[in-house]
Write a structure and sequence with these properties.
This protein has about 80 residues and is mainly β. Helices cover about 10% and strands about 35% of the residues. The longest helix is centred in the middle third of the chain and has 7 residues.
Length: about 80
């Protein structure tokens, strides 16, 4: 996952090309990676992608993303 360095939010909005047609879906996989599906093609978003195409929903920051993997509690 990713987190905004300005406000620590993980909420984002993708800035797509104005003429972009088709369906775009975002989800996380079992490794907490952001998986995007664009017109039936699937890929894992990296930091370069996020800093080029994602806008923070909370503060409006651009090019402010860092990797963020929250620690999970492991049941023993």
């Amino acid at each position: 996952m990713f987190r905004c360095t300005e406000c620590q939010s993980t909420e984002f909005q993708l800035m797509l090309q104005p003429g972009q047609q088709g369906k775009v879906e975002a989800r996380t996989n079992e490794h907490q990676e952001l998986v995007l599906t664009v017109n039936k093609k699937e890929f894992i978003a990296d930091l370069l992608f996020m800093n080029q195409f994602a806008l923070c929903k909370c503060c409006g920051g651009i090019k402010k993303w860092e990797y963020f993997f929250p620690k999970r509690k492991i049941a023993i």
